[in-house]
Automatic annotation (TrEMBL):
Native species: Umezawaea endophytica
Residue ranges occupied by any HTH hxlR-type domain in the UniProt entry: 19-117
Keyword set includes Chaperone: no
Name this polypeptide is given: Helix-turn-helix transcriptional regulator
Listed InterPro entries: HTH_HxlR, WH-like_DNA-bd_sf, WH_DNA-bd_sf
Length: 127
């Protein structure tokens, strides 16, 4: 017997607490994911290059983000058997499909920065 909740999970209903789409939304809605995918949208990159380009990310958070993206099939990790070992990260085909919607969100945030900042300021000083 399929319950309403499990049936919704099979359809892909992010409003259902048991649906796996919630975990996917958590991953792609994370600020570090948005920025890492943006960097990798320019092509393969090494860990140190990603860390340089994503200002403020700690080594621990970048490692966790890359591992999660790799686990989800959005990033490919390639180890080159050189001395020293060289590791590069790249978006998979699925990962590349995120570029357009994430770039749209980045563009929106830049275009509306002034309006949002003004609203925050007005709200903070309304009391």
């Amino acid at each position: 017997m399929v319950t309403t909740s499990s049936a919704a999970a099979l359809r892909g209903d992010p409003y259902d607490a048991n649906c796996a789409t919630r975990r996917i939304l958590d991953r792609i809605g994370d600020r570090w994911t948005v920025l890492v995918v943006g960097v990798l949208g320019d092509g393969e990159a090494r860990f140190s290059e990603i860390r340089r380009r994503v200002d403020g990310v700690s080594q621990k958070m970048l490692t966790q983000t890359l591992r999660g993206l790799e686990r989800d099939g959005l990033v490919r990790r390639t180890v080159h058997p050189t001395v020293p070992v060289r590791v590069e990260y790249a978006l998979t085909e699925a990962g590349r499909t995120l570029l357009e919607p994430l770039r749209a969100l980045q563009k929106w945030s830049i275009e509306h920065l002034g309006d949002v900042s003004a609203s925050q300021n007005a709200y903070d000083h309304a009391e």
